[in-house]
Amino acid sequence: MLHIPSSSGPSHWAVKWLTGLVWFLAAGGAVVWALKFPVLTAGTSVPVVQEPAAQSDAQFSVGVARSLGHRAASPSAAVAADLRFQLLGVIAGGSGSGSALISVGGLPPKAFRVGQTVTDGVVLQRLQARRAELGASSSGPAQWTLELPAAAEGG
Question: What global pTM score does this model have?
Answer without folding.
Answer: 0.44
